[in-house]
Amino acid sequence: MFAREKDAKQKTEDRIHETVTPLSDISGAATAVLPNLTERPSTISVSRVTPPPAPSTLAARDSKAEAKNDSKRLTVGRGISLNGKISFCDRLVIDGKVEAELEDCHTVEVTENGTFKGAAEITGAEISGHYDGSLTVRENLLIRSTGRVSGTVRYGKLHIEDGGEINGDVKSIASTKN
């Protein structure tokens, strides 16, 4: 090889590789750097810095999706007391004390520290704390080992863990229809 050809080849290899990307294809954290228009008006150099999503970002996305699904969720925290009427709640979680009438609610969860006193006609319930009053559960009533239910209870299906208690007027919904 001649010296001139060698120098020309080396200069060609030393150039920065430029790519042409339509601006409509650039998304996220991409930045476009326009070249000197006197040299090459038809090329655009694009540097993309798109790190993979961090686990906390994925968790935030999941929690947003979950929040959308649980948009009608009410949580009564530990140490909080609530009295009144609760309507149109998809999911009620009780970790405090609630004295209420539930209307058009879907499911109720009374945690180990939670207490509910009142009336509810719902689709499903999981009781780990105390429930006192009128309870009608159209589908599944689950009483955990720490759960205590007393009052008038009607249920579709009843599941009681060892140690769980149920007292009062207790009947299957199927038997009340006969």
Characterize the structure shown.
By secondary structure, the chain is an alpha/beta fold. It has 2 domains: 3-48, no CATH class; 70-177, no CATH class. Helix content is 18%, strand content 46%. It has 3 helices and 12 strands; from the N terminus they run H-E-E-H-E-E-E-E-E-E-E-E-E-E-H. The chain has helices at residues 3-14, 55-69, 173-177, and strands at residues 30-33, 45-48, 73-76, 81-87, 91-94, 97-103, 107-110, 115-122, 124-127, 130-143, 148-160, 165-172. Strands 3, 4, 5, 6, 7, 8, 9, 10, 11 and 12 form a 10-stranded parallel sheet that branches. It has a two-stranded antiparallel ribbon with strand order 1-2. The protein is globular, with a radius of gyration of 32 Å. The relative contact order is 0.08.
Describe the SSE topology:
Layout: H1 3-14, E1 30-33, E2 45-48, H2 55-69, E3 73-76, E4 81-87, E5 91-94, E6 97-103, E7 107-110, E8 115-122, E9 124-127, E10 130-143, E11 148-160, E12 165-172, H3 173-177
Parallel strand pairs: 3-5, 4-6, 5-7, 6-8, 7-9, 8-10, 9-10, 10-11, 11-12
Antiparallel strand pairs: 1-2
What brief labels describe this structure?
178 residues; alpha/beta; two-stranded antiparallel ribbon; 12 strands; globular
In short:
This protein has 3 helices and 12 strands. It is of the alpha/beta class and 178 residues long.
Shape field: globular
Give the terminus-to-terminus CA distance: 102 Å
What Rg, in angstroms, do the CA atoms define? 32 Å
Low-confidence stretches: 15-21, 23-34, 41-50
Structural class: alpha/beta
Order of helices and strands: HEEHEEEEEEEEEEH
Give the total of beta strands. Answer: 12
**Count of separate structural domains:** 2
Enumerate how many helices there are, as a single number. Answer: 3
Helix content: 10-25%
| Mean pLDDT, all residues | 76
Query: Mind summarizing the main beta sheet?
Result: 10 strands, parallel
Strand content: over 45%
